Amino acid sequence: MKRLSVQRHRIFSGRHSFCVGCNSVEKKIYVHLNYTFPCVRLLNATHQIGCQSSLSGNVGVLHELESEENLDWVLTSGPNPPYMVILESRLFTRSIMMKLKEGSGRVAGVVVVAPNTNPPEGFSPHTACPNDNSGVYTENYDPTLAHCNATVWNPLGNGLAYEEFDFPIFSVKDDNDTRVIRQCYQDHNRRVNGSNPQFPLCAMQLRSSMSAVTNTATCKRRNDINFSLTPDRVCDELGDFNIWASSRPMNTTTKGHKEFESVVIAAARMDSRSFFFDIAPGAESTASGIVTLLAAAHALRRATQEAPPNRTILYTFFQGETFDYIGSSRMVYDMENNQFPLDLDNIHSVLEVSQVGLHSDSKLWLHSDPVSRKNSSVKEEVEKLVNGLKSASAGLNVSVDEPDVSQPLPPSSFQRFLLARPIPGVVIGNYRSSFTNRYYESMYDNAEYLNVSYPENMTSEEQLEHFPETVKTLTEVATLVARALYVQAGGNETQLANITADPQIVNQMLYSFLVRANNSWLQQLVPTDFTNHLADRPTNFYVGVIQYFSEPTTLVQYMLANMTGSVVNVTQEDCQKQREDKDDDQSKHLYTYMWVQGAAPPNSTEREGFCVRSTVHRSIAVSPAFELHEYTTSNYSTWTESVWKPITGRIFLVASHDLEMLTLGVGITVLLTSLVLTYVISSKADILFSSGREPTSATY
Asked: Can you give the pTM of this predicted structure?
């Protein structure tokens, strides 16, 4: 069973399709779609969400929806149901989709044409209260703050991504595929002068058959049923790895509490999602925080080495936070159970970088928890952190402020730490009481929205040297975060002037995440065998399942190692064996060694690799629910992803039902006639095919 989103069978050009060796009947009948992005099925403890088709795929007559009023043709009056509805993104609304869902007996599927520019009105298929019931704000913690009673963080959230549809929904780019589909519709299906279209009609088949049903407990139970040596799985748990690094070496082989160790956690999330699988650009919701924290870590490298602060800074990037805080809940669980090199007693405070893409006339807001601030020691440390952030903004083109102290925290990884115990902390974001991100957790939260754009006539190398306005603002934010972290960790304020983020590094990271990872800068920072995974497209921030490669996790791991580590003069063999030389058996407990391919010198194609020594580590980011086998718990994330058969889409012409029946009848008649003739001829074969025998006495 494969997780494939496209089948590339043809190349389309204008109204015509071309293919090499189209001599089979199948290729003459069907036109396969390129670059389709499906909606897939996800499950948790209580229910399932997403989309699916029948095992062989859903087939329907194409109908292009022009307005919401035009729905009547699909739902009631159209003479040839079921229909495969193709619609523009402006019509991909909750109102229309729920009407199609209710009339699903006449709907075979939906194709959404992704626009080339973002819709100005905004669109968020996530819920209005992200991660409700999985954070700290429950009835037990403070009933007045539970379920976003005090603040609706995502007011544009329509919850569409958390609905269940019993038909497939695909997204296609507004390119050659779309032109072929529309031309087929115009030629065969469009009504002319009010009359119904005549057969043959243009039809589409979408196949996205999902194996898992009902909920996570059901699919995990089916996974455990073994009728063969290689049983098929029907679902996999969502998850990957958290990435973390410490500002000074820490023994990672000993788990649990470390005496005399106090850490300030600097956190950001690594994942995002949208309605469609494989499209999760997460520019503001995710990439802005990642880039800011990585740039801050880079800015702190020299200061933490030359004038180390009293406390250790723990740069932490959590994976799976979109789905009920998978990564942060697992780290807290590991700390509570002595499965991490630190425990909760070692945590001094937390600074989390949320959405920090600054647009015109926006500022940064410093959010804290009103409940834990009732504790005097927590309140004192929070005020110290807030004042440190305000002081760090002096001289920068960034303004910071604090919302009403009675306001709860926004959705954040920090909430999972507060669930365990009162810990001082601040979440920094570009919103006061609701997200300013109009495209939260959607396919439109992209480079365009973050204003990361480059002149079209520039080469990739020139773009890496060009700084959009967003680069300048994120550099300022990264400088602010770095200075505040240094002071919070007990560093000397006289060093602050030397702590400044590098705009070139910020630009290179933004380009790698939001435009294309396959660029000359990033190629230098990764091993040779990883370069094949660098894509000529924006990063997909969807967490995925633990069995499969995760692009953002690996990119962050290598970026963080190069931002905070140092180059050591060791051989490739020693580097890959996690040692400085053949007699070294201690360094592996403190450091991680990575051999990267480096750059090629001028006038040479041979790269000069080198070894990076850093404190970067990975820790598992799979919900504790799966380790505890508690698939119905409400304490931890229980999200799983269904396994599916190959996902395909294709268009073809379909004849009328009467003609199909006539053809079938003629075929049956011919078959029966041939059987009768065969029987008659066979029974009379000795007469029909006999020949006279010569007498035995004949001589020649």
From this structure: 0.91
